[in-house]
Amino acid sequence: MAKCLVAQSGGPTSVINATVAGVVKANQLNPIYDTVLGGLHGIEGILQEMFVDLTDMSEEENLILRQTPSSALGSCRYKLKRENTADFVKLFEILEKHDIRTVFYTGGNDSMDTVTALAQYAEANGLSDKFQFVGCPKTVDNDLMVMDHSPGYASAAKFIATTAYQTWLDSTVYTRQDVFILETMGRDAGWLAAAACVSGIVDVLVLPELDFDKEAFLAQVKKHVDAKNKCYVVVSEGVSYADGTYLAAGESKNDTFGHAVLGGAGNALREMILEAGISERAKVQDLSNAQRSHATEQSKVDVEESFKLGMSAHMRSVDPTFTGKTVFVTRVEGDSYDVKFDATDSSNIANHVRHFPLEWILPDFAGITQEGLDYVAPLLVGTPVILFDEKGLPKHVTPYYMR
């Protein structure tokens, strides 16, 4: 039997490691591969032959890995460019050298493009019978096409909805005038910001799917402040004006994939509100990395689905022709929430963005429809049993790239 390799790429989530745990556990139950290697720091590390053996992971470590946030194998923002054939030649030489037949790559849009590029290169060079590449999706942004939702979104959404409710309670204790602004991630899609509406306390919701109208926004904030002396605002970091200019203060920079690096939308709204004299106070809470790394409030649904997705990907890889594919979650129609796992060509996911449905957005920044709430709510259900250490802190595995 040959070896398989599992690696992580892009932004972390609080359940991305559960997919790795699923691949490992599946191979222990059904040893398709004699060795399960972890690739450190994604493609960047694979090109440097940075591997760790995960084959004989203990049950305890597997359980703790599932509750460990961020990317335990390390991540990267390395762009595997098709015109850079040297990278492809080197990578396939390394796979050959280490007898690696299958690569499970966990990530978002750009990572699924990597899966596609590797499968295409293998096919073009007569290597498809020797190597296969399988995508395992993740992203807190929930902006991946085809699937009902992406592993990682539910836990981030649960944290955001919980934080919204708890900070709302905090912001309402005084009789004074006050506007509270919660800023979430979401460069192109408003799934995370919309999730705050599950809390039932959001007065004004600003999403990137709609061009920002300053005067209309200020009118809605004023309406709430006039009525109750308070207003709770949730804004996605990627909100922009009709001309494409980001609301975020200052010029945005680009990451290595050409995506805007944002942050500051909440502060921009705060300055507008204060300058307009609508409220004497306005406070901003930018959730930043907390929304994707806060693992003690994981969604049980999210952890279990991420784990099972890894197992499903492993099972499907027994078919050597299963390559350039991504395994994903499909919601099953019925009276109660249930899912199944399907697969599609990774190219159907790569470099596409799934926006929050316009028909689920209420007019006048008033939040989301009942259909939108019904979509999000089942994903937040349940909390997994968390293992704690002697200090009372959640147990986490030491990142493999630190060992």
Written description of the protein model:
- This protein is α/β, with parallel strands linked by helices.
- Helix content is 33%, strand content 17%.
- The protein contains twelve helices and 13 strands.
- Strands 3-2-1-4-5-12-13 form a seven-stranded mixed β-sheet, with helices on both faces.
- Helix 8 links the parallel strand 7 and strand 8.
Blueprint (SSEs and pairs):
Elements: E1 3-8, H1 16-29, E2 35-39, H2 42-46, E3 51-53, H3 59-66, H4 85-97, E4 100-107, H5 109-124, E5 132-137, H6 153-171, E6 178-184, H7 191-195, E7 204-206, H8 214-228, E8 230-236, E9 253-254, E10 260-261, H9 265-275, E11 282-286, H10 290-293, H11 300-316, E12 325-331, E13 339-345, H12 370-376
Parallel strand pairs: 1-2, 1-4, 4-5, 5-12, 6-8, 6-11, 7-8
Antiparallel strand pairs: 2-3, 9-10, 12-13
Helix pairs in contact: 1-3, 1-11
